[in-house]
Design goal:
Elements lengths: L13 H16 L14 H8 L1 H4 L21 H9 L16 H20 L15
Helix pairs in contact: 2-5, 4-5
Length: 137
């Protein structure tokens, strides 16, 4: 008669399932899913939050823990930012390329991003996130 393994071996604890689920969410949060059929998202802020906020943060200051650069520190101009979003200008980069993104959407995101950058630059030093906690692009 074949030996039957105890039920305990097939039971996965709730905490293990939760950790596995969180891991899947973290790994898929910044994906290269280049989908742009979202008519409810119209403003640059809405589009930035949809496409960029998960990795770069709501304020564009990046996330040190995940190694995501602070895009508010870039010195690129508007056209270079749009080009960076939609073209593979750096094959070594980890950020996905949004090649299917309409130009108007990339401009709206970039415009909002430049507002974030201006707002960050206007903050007094004691209100800014320390540069040591940001990764330069």
């Amino acid at each position: 008669m074949p030996k039957v393994l105890p039920d305990v071996m097939f039971k996965i604890s709730r905490s293990t399932r939760l950790c596995a689920g969180l891991l899947v969410i973290m790994l898929t949060a910044c994906t290269s899913f280049d989908e742009h059929d979202h008519p409810d998202l119209k403003s640059g802020e809405d589009l930035f939050n949809h496409h960029c906020e998960t990795c770069h943060g709501v304020d564009g200051s990046g996330k040190l823990v995940s190694g995501t650069p602070a895009n508010i520190l870039t010195e690129r101009g508007r056209d270079a930012i749009v080009n960076y979003i939609t073209s593979n200008v750096n094959p070594q980069r980890e950020m996905p390329v949004f090649s299917a993104m309409p130009y108007a959407e990339a401009i709206a995101i970039t415009s909002h991003f430049l507002v974030l950058q201006r707002d960050y630059d206007a903050l007094p030093l004691n209100k800014k996130k320390p540069l040591e906690l940001m990764i330069e692009p």
